[in-house]
Amino acid sequence: MAAAVRLPELPDRYNAAETFIDAHRGVRDSAVAIRCQGTGVTYGEVAANVDRSGNALRELGVGMEERVVVMCLDSPAFVYAFFGAIKIGAVPVPTNTLLVPHDLRYVLADSRAVAIVVSAPLLPKVLEIRKDLPRLRHVIVSGGDAPPEALSLEGLLAAASDELSPADTTPDDACFWLYSSGTTGFPKGAVHLQHDMIYCCETYGASVLATTERDRHFTVSPLFHAYGLGNGVFFPFRVGASTVYKPERATPDLVYGLITTERPTILFTAPTFYAALLAYPEQDFRYDLSSLRMCVSAGEALPKPLFESWRKRFGLEILDGIGATEMLHIFISNVSGRSRAGTSGTPVPGYRAKIMDDDGNDLGPGATGNLWVSGDSCAAYYWNKHQKSKAAFKGEWYVTGDKYHLDPDGYYTYEGRSDDMLKVSGQWVSPAEVEAALMEHPAVLECGVVGAKDKDELTKPRAFVILKNGRPPSPELAEELKEFVKGRITPYKYPRWIEFVDELPKTATGKIQRFKLREMKV
To answer: Which of these, 119, 121, 356, 500, is most buried using a 10 Å CB contact count?
Structure first.
């Protein structure tokens, strides 16, 4: 376990925007806060636009504790909407930009959002479902023309005052929500409090990253994700560092190009993308990574071969760690100079971790069991999910749902999920959801989905499919099924492999035995 860390003494009345936005006023107004598509935005400009955003939302009637969904591509608009809502005491809900309309409808309805700020390319998803959302009063579009049924964020900012006092909130008031996929059923809204971001900054940010105002962060993982939100927003904004945003879809060429031109000092992404970067042909490599002092990985376990290949090629360790939406950021991590490849590292100062059996007994070093973690960035509860809150939050402890091994040196190694969920490219995937999508195809009789390792030892969905009579298996049908699933659910969830089989292993009651599917050789 790691020692406790004391927060900076927070006053009884506290708003997170004071720490991350207002603290820079008059101190570094001309310093660059954000670099995006070749343009710099200063801390002074960020502060003014956050205030304009808050004033605009208030003028639209958005009140204390009302939810504002933020579905923006990585851009300054995300920051304006996020902190503008926080500053007036409203509750922003950063939302996955890849959601299909059906899933977006659930988040908007469950959160009872009164407004959504959305990037222009994503607006059609919102307009398609707006008729189903009577509580959604305002659709605000950023980075493009607003149709008659929407408002322009840029227009609202231009008309609003750039002076705004923070709302009368406390350190324990709701600050923002993040939706977690969870283990089964619908996503869960994890309610984070006003003090959670600063706690992460004073723990992981200070002891692992050691970010200063001279640093420049670059997160490939998007801002709507808890990992990206820390990397690209609250860690750099805590100390007055700068951060690089890319609204475009990440490709190795784009990321290598931005590292070369923008000169970040810390790179954040997930193992899947580190594998893609390593796959770039060495003979064609023309980029410069010399600005990087640190590389960080989270979202899924980093395989040891990836760690070693990256260090051999670029001379840099990748600091792997584990975080959770519920804990807001990384709570177990490797640190510079003490990385142990293939492990998640040791508890970050300010967090405690333990390995428990299914009966709630502490197993101690040398054991494999359920990982529990404690730290003051933990979400207060899941919105409107009482039973799931009771199962996940045990006093000061959060039950992660991960199986871990603790070695005698205090290093934690990931052993898998306590349930059947898969983590793909840093995002949770429910096998049942993929199976349901496959079952909609007219050729599919039955199917089962499990995780399998690709050539980089990263987990991806693998589907075992029984076809209906008369439909012969073929490579063409396998590709058709993959594309079919992409069109039904969020695309990253599609099965990378389709295996045609004659039967699926089942229990006496007819449930698919996933462990047998994982063991099957095809």
So the answer is: 119
